[in-house]
Amino acid sequence: MSSPPANFRLTTWPGPLPPEPSLVTVVIVSYNSGPILGRCLRALAAQSEGRFRVVVLDNASSDGWAERLRLPDARFALVRSRINLGFAAGVNLGAALRPSPWVAALNPDALPLTNWLAELLAVARDNPQAAAVGSLQLFLDDPEIMDGAGDCYHPSGTAWRGGHGQRLGPLPQVAEVFAPCAAAALYDGAAFRRAGGMYERLFCYMEDVDLGFRLRLSGRACLQANRAMVLHHGDISGAGASGLARRLGFRNRLWVLVRDMPAPLLCLAAPLWLAAQAALLAQAVSQGQGAHAWRGLVEGVRGLGAVWDDRRRVQATRRVSLARLMRAMTWSPLAALRRGACSKARSPRA
Question: What total of structural domains would you count in the chain?
Answer without folding.
Answer: 1
